[in-house]
Amino acid sequence: MAERYIFNKSLNRRVPRWYWLAFAVAAIFSFTVFVSPVKAQEPLLVDPDAKRNASTVTTTVTNIDFTQAANNTAVTLVSFEGQAPKFQLIESQGKVSVTLPNTKLGEDQLVELNVADFGTLVSTIETFEDKDGARIEVNYSGPVTVQNMVKDGIIRMA
Predict the structure, then answer these.
(1) Most buried among 9, 18, 56, 98, by the most CB within 10 A?
(2) The pTM is what?
(3) Which residues contact 98 (CB under 8 A, 6 or more apart)?
(4) Integer-rounded Cα radius of gyration of the chain
(5) Which residues are paired to 154 by β-bridges?
(6) pLDDT tens digits, the chain, 158 residues: what are they?
(7) 58-157 adopts what CATH topology?
């Protein structure tokens, strides 16, 4: 027994070729992943006005009416063509500001109404329009409590 002989038959076999092929593919893949320069990710630019620009103006102020109720209360009615928008009402420093997003003013609605002759605490009603929507400002003097209601496409502020 001059030659070395291994009695365990599983140790006499050579490793199959597909092991070497799988090892070579894994090595190449690892090399390309870890050694190649990492490309910086392009920053994703988001337009903050995209939603605003995509939405179209679907609501138009058609009429602003001022009346005096029976108990000497000032009532302002704002009528719309289309659905009444969700509005923001802010009362401070002698002024009630109603912001109407995605709304435009109708013809002859960009006005300043002097309503001091009605004998209420309200002195003027002024309208503004910009690219984001419309705004109505009601100027008053004295202590007031503002109540608002939306019904049938009309905003009622008393």
Answers:
(1) 98
(2) 0.63
(3) 78, 87, 88, 89, 135, 136, 137, 138, 155, 157
(4) 38
(5) 79, 151
(6) 556 666 666 665 666 677 778 888 888 888 776 666 555 567 778 777 766 655 565 789 999 999 888 888 889 999 998 888 888 999 988 899 999 988 999 888 888 989 888 888 899 999 999 888 899 999 998 888 888 888 888 888 88
(7) Immunoglobulin-like (2.60.40)
